[in-house]
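User: My advisor, Dr. K., asked me to get a structural model of this assembly before our group meeting. I'm new to this, so sorry if the format is off. These are the inputs:
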Amino acid sequence: MSAPAGPGASADEPVLEIRGLCVDYGRGAQATHAVIDADLALHRGEVLGLAGESGSGKSTLAYGATRLLRQPGIITGGSVLFRPGASRPDIVVDILDASPQTLRSLRWRDVAIVFQSAMNSLNPVLSVQAQLTDTLAAHLPDAAKGERRERAAELLELVGISPDRLRSFPHELSGGMKQRVMIALALALDPQVVIMDEPTTALDVVTQRQIVEQVIRLRDRLGFSVLFITHDLSLLIEMADIIAIMYAGRIVESAPARRLFRAPRHPYTAALLDSFPSLHGPPRVLTGIPGSPPDMRNLPPGCPFAPRCRYALPRCTREIPGLASPAIASDRRRLVACWLHEERELPGELAMPEPDGPPCAPLPIAPESPGGSR
Amino acid sequence: MTQTPDGPHPAQGGGRPRGAVVLEAHGLTKHFKVRSRPQRGRRRTRSTVHACEDVDLVLRAGQVTAVVGESGCGKTTVARMLAQLTKPTRGTITLAGEPVTGRGLRAYRRTVQIVFQDPFASLNPVHSVRYHLSRPLRIHKRARGAREVNAAVDALLSRVKLDPPGQFADKLPHELSGGQRQRVAIARALAAGPAVLLADEPVSMLDVSIRLGVLNLLGELRDVEGLAILYVTHDIASARYFSDTMTVMYAGRVVESGPSLEVTDNPAHPYTQLLLDAAPDPERPGPQAIEARGSAPSLIAPPSGCRFHPRCPHAMPVCAERQPPDMPVGEGRVAACWLRHANDKDAINTPTAGNLPA
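Assistant: The format is fine. Below is the predicted structure of the whole assembly, which you can bring to the meeting.
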């Protein structure tokens, strides 16, 4: 459904805004609440990193927001607002409420997805060219065949693959190249929002780094926004502008990347940051997080992190904290869901001063090598 | 030998002093023969994958040795050869000074055990934890009779911090979390009473928050029981955290080895530098771009000379011609790189663009 935006519509409104999204698997009493009351705002040209352990609901959130959930996933509440911006300034689309036609024209052209495990997402019996032109033909039926082929070559060059790979089949490409083809496919229609679900998880560190650099370079050039989903928080701190941390289906903290890293406010964020061994300095013993990730079918009452939290208060095991701006934060983009911030005394680990300087450090970009990836 | 739940564990290192060489590999090489299927218009081709060439490795009691590299660099092949799951094409393995012949496999397995990467695949879904642990106890005659076996199973579960043991012994693998499953896999390896534990990516399938718990458990087995541990991983940061010595492999060859902290803090080989630059690092002080590009080579026709030279930002003509010898670059450290060749030092351009020390 499209509706004219109110007078408050301005350039700094988020391009994609998720409000109170709830997703269940199954119905009735047996339902598992996979995503609970999630709020996220993706601003134009930003990289929003969504981090969490497996089963924390981060992929479910992305698929729920684009209505790509499979049975038995059901969206039980919330709204997902997409604002096309300059091209169609007065329009706000609620994706959860959109008609099939609106949805069909919106997907890929406005909001594109790079799925997890690129290895299985490409069709093994079609050449790269066929897969690219197929997409273009479906969404731009007026374009001539030659134009489509040209655009396909252009897209491959964009992601650093030589256009003479157009006739290659997926099995002839390396894992990194397949992932690049997936990114080229997602960018085929110049989307404003690209959702990337664990795009580098199956890749080697060096390849992962190259892909991440490529994504940032393309973002700088084409200006799309990225929702980047991963379990690797250390990677996000380097590449994302804003990071949201999920635990047991809820967003527990969100903040600009550097600030989240230097001054975590949620005990889970702090413990997660302390789970990555450092590459510098004398080695110190890290403990990880005690216990196991929660069973989503059987969540404890109160804050789901309370059983593993070293600072848990009696209140934490009874009441669920909501996402709010903590008193200690000076940044209005900082939100945290934790009762500790209503206490007079905050553990020192969670009361670090906000770092100065730009809220997020840009990723170092290597000069583009001639010939792109080999 | 039996174990009681409360008594001290028998010295698992076989009473070897800390630092003594337990398992040693010399010139370990594996070539896999592959045949392509005949295709229309093409003949069947035979080729060889050079998975692993001339790898030297020493495992010492009470120490963790890490093998670090990208997928396809041959690190798992090394672990499998050490476990005698794959027969080396060339090279020797010596266990406590005795050359390993390939016979007496059961005695070998009593001393050398392996933990696999995927605890979701390495445990049999239809058998209980108790069954998984009691089999090696019986096979290696470490416990006899139901009562003794059950006591030993409980002791093993306590050793891997699955407490109380009674709560875990009769569970099936699907009732356990990933971290708990990997602990069961470690307990199964310990059941044989080994002196050497080969851990092939033991934490890469686990959630970030529980990886450290499993690594710390292995670290405790090293410190308290004097186990010699081989830690195969692609994650150089965890290798730095957990291992005493480190061996970096690239395309089937060892490019650098030495004490872990020295290797990561002051890498001597451009590939080690690349791995460090590529690893996610929130504390990286300034912008730093990756210099080497491209991807790992085909192992069917590996590059001539140094296998890293096509990607190396410091490559010189000699790198494409001859395989660099192992050059000593410090106390207990070697790097296979022409940049480190002392005799040729004046003849070559020392790196300026990179941050490798000249």
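One thing worth pointing out at the meeting: Confidence is low (pLDDT under 50) at residues 1-10, 358-374 of chain A.

User: Perfect, thanks a lot.
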